[in-house]
Amino acid sequence: MKKLLLLSISLALTAGAFAGEVGDSLTFAGQSAFYKASPSKSAAARAVRETGVCDAPQRPYDTVAINGIMPEGVTFELRPDGSTDWAQMTVKRFDNGRFWGKYEFPSLSTDKLEVRITSPSGAQPDIYDIEVFARSMTDADRPATTTKAAPALRDSGYDETVPGIDLIPRSEWGAKPATEAYTPHTPVMITVHHTAATQPMTREDGIKEMQFLQDLHQNTDGWIDIGYHFLIDGAGDIFEGRPMNVVGAHTEGKNTGNIGISMMGYFHPPQNNQPTDAQLASLRKIIQAVAAMNNIKMTELYAHRELNATDCPGDILYPIFQSMRTELQNQKVENPQNSAAPVLRSIDDLKTLQGLNK
Known about the structure:
Layout: E1 9-12, E2 24-25, E3 27-28, E4 31-32, E5 34-37, E6 48-50, E7 61-69, E8 75-80, E9 87-88, E10 90-93, E11 98-109, E12 113-118, E13 126-133, E14 167-168, H1 170-173, E15 189-194, H2 203-219, E16 230-232, E17 238-240, E18 258-263, H3 277-294, E19 301-303, H4 317-331, H5 347-353
Parallel strand pairs: 14-17, 15-18, 15-19, 16-18
Antiparallel strand pairs: 1-5, 2-13, 3-4, 6-12, 7-11, 7-13, 8-9, 8-12, 10-11, 16-17
């Protein structure tokens, strides 16, 4: 196998197997592909970079997806190991620099790949992830894109109302309609994620990231809508993703009955974002509110890595989540005298705790 060609890119690395939020993340010499431009080299010297050949993919795939932040004019090409022909990826860049790239093979493959990045200006992109996955799955996991006519969302019918939560509904962040009808479900569990991407610190930037993530999920991953039910930015704003009473696309093989809550950010090496106090407070609030609304026990609260082979929600966030979960479980006891913490048995209890029933 070729060694990873660093050239003038400083490569921040995390060891071990890694599964992304969509599919299986490609690794290079056992480490993840997170690139950041080195400021020490001239622009001309950084025009073209190659990753070298990746490790063997974990499963057969027919789609390659990449996302991150990039300057204008950058192109991405890939080729299977042993091929001399480079194929250009389809790339979409948003005004704030967020981008996704995609390439679809005509059939399933297990070939190792290498990626070539060309930047006429020399300014290199930040790459959050390079993932491979199969399109021939249901929407609850990794679906195929279809050509069915998309039903229009009702103007207000899918704007969620969660008592005690100042929720930013789909209509406010500019959600596009789902491309197909949702599949109803009855929530019985909650799974916490991170987006493994940007950590926006203002509502305005959070809205932009929501629009990007929905576009990524619909047009790169092939899902009918954004995969999560709720997302939280660094300012603590809580955004409505999919309606709570429909199946999401966030935990492979375990989406039915599962509400997905995702913290915006990359709480894992090499990015090492830190969750803000506002973000953590909002995570606690939405977990309590959603659990109370759906009679979900705190024993049915999970981190993504506990259900799938993934680092999500990151080594930084996971221990914080574990402590939060323990506290929430201790609050809901059969005998209130065993704990000084409030007991949440209904949505009215939640309103009282949050000072709404006065």
